Amino acid sequence: MNKYILVAGAFFGLTAVVLGAFGAHVLKDSIGAENLKTFETGVKYQMYHALLLLLLGCTSFVSQGTKQLLLYLIVAGIVFFSGSVYGLATNSLTSFDFKKIALITPVGGLLLIISWGILLYNFIKIKIE
């Protein structure tokens, strides 16, 4: 399980850097300052959670079952939250109206919040010896 978590973390970290560079160099003049700021928010949250996955893959304080649950929640949260933010920020460049699916943004955010809550709970219940 740890290998999958680490691979997911590295993948989302890599794509966050690529998307950040894409936003800064390609989209900068195409989507406007406000939408670029929105796009950068998606990149930041993707990177934060890529780092969380790397931490999760390296810790022994969380059971494998909980790690698997967190992997699913975090991956879905990144895809829903950051993915929809990318779509909304670049909405003017596509023929698809991402505003129609804007409700998945808070769902993705909620999945990420739940992930952090589960992690916090697991860290709180660690017995100090």
UniProtKB/TrEMBL annotation:
Protein keywords: Membrane, Transmembrane, Transmembrane helix
Keyword Transmembrane found: yes
Topology of the protein relative to the lipid bilayer: Multi-pass membrane protein
Primary location class: membrane
Residue ranges crossing the lipid bilayer per the database entry: 47-63, 70-89, 101-124
Subcellular location: Membrane
InterPro entries: DUF423
Keyword set includes Cell membrane: no
Assigned GO CC terms: plasma membrane
Assigned protein family: Belongs to the UPF0382 family.
Entry protein name: DUF423 domain-containing protein
Organism: Abyssalbus ytuae
